[in-house]
Each structure stands twice: as C-alpha cells, then as structure tokens.
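Data card: per-record layout.
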Amino acid sequence: MELYMSVSESALACISFPLTCFIGMIFMPESPYYLLMRNRTTEARISLEKLRGTDDVDQELQRMSTAVKVQKEESKGKFKDVFMVPSNRKALLIMMLLRAAQQLSGITALIFYISLIFEQSGAYFSVGVSTIIFFAAQLVMSILGSAAVDWTGRRILLYGRLLVQQFHCWSKEFICN
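The structure for this 177-residue chain is written out next.
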C-alpha cells in the first residue's frame, strides 16, 4: 500500500484548516446580534460597521434591535421542550433515525478500510489514486446532493433513496440465490 504522506505529515496537513479558522476568528468582531442581546448597542454598531465595511448601518441596526426586542418579549424555549412539544419530538426522532441510518449503512467502515479494499480488489489505478478518486467523487456527490435537496425537497429524495435501496437489496437477493 503506497502512502503520499506519513501519519504525522497528514496530521500536520489536517490541523492547518482548524488552525487557520482559529486564527481568523481572533480577528473576527463579535456578532452585533449577540451584543444587542446583551444591551451593548454602541458596540453592536461598531461591530456591524466593521462587518459591512460602511458607516451607514442605521436601518439594519434598527431592524436588528426590533427583532431582538420581539425575541426577548416572547417566551423562551426550554430544553425539555425538545421532548415535550410534539413537533419538536417528531423532528428529534427523524434526526436520530437519519443519523442511525447513516452510521448503520457502513460508510464509516468503508472509509476506514478504503485503501485496503482497493488494494485487495486489484483495481486498475494505484491505491492512492483510487482513494483520491473515491473521495473526490464523494465530495462532488455531496455538493450535488445539497443542490438536489434545495431543488426537490427532502421528502422526495428520502423516498427515492429508500426505493432504490429496496430495489438493490431485492435484486441482490435474487441474483445471489
């Protein structure tokens, strides 16, 4: 099995992304919304001016202030509302089932052993190139999948995916037996 980087080089390459984000966040001004929630209006104005790059933020600051006041007047949700409110409970259940389905689909095992799988399959390309192609395809399909969700909606895609999976399982059962 060929490697392009050692484990330590790979770790250093991977830590560069979160480290860049961390350093960038040091210079990021505090959220104007957060500052308005804490009744720090002048700091919110300064922050909004930095974020927008202009001094003309009066209208936007007024809209944000109004939204913050309305939100403060409304009743605050509590953690137990996630379990007690039927719509929240349904959303939580759907989220947990989707996450469980993702974990039980085997994608984690596939990703962990992808190099070994390509090595033992005798693929046309080298293990490294095959792995890069696999993850590039996964990235492209993730982007296309996100666009498809926006275009068609979640429900249609979930039903379609379930039908394709059922067809695949049934066809595999009939072909193998």
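Known properties of this structure: The mean pLDDT is 85. The chain has ten helices and no strands.

See the next section for split statistics.
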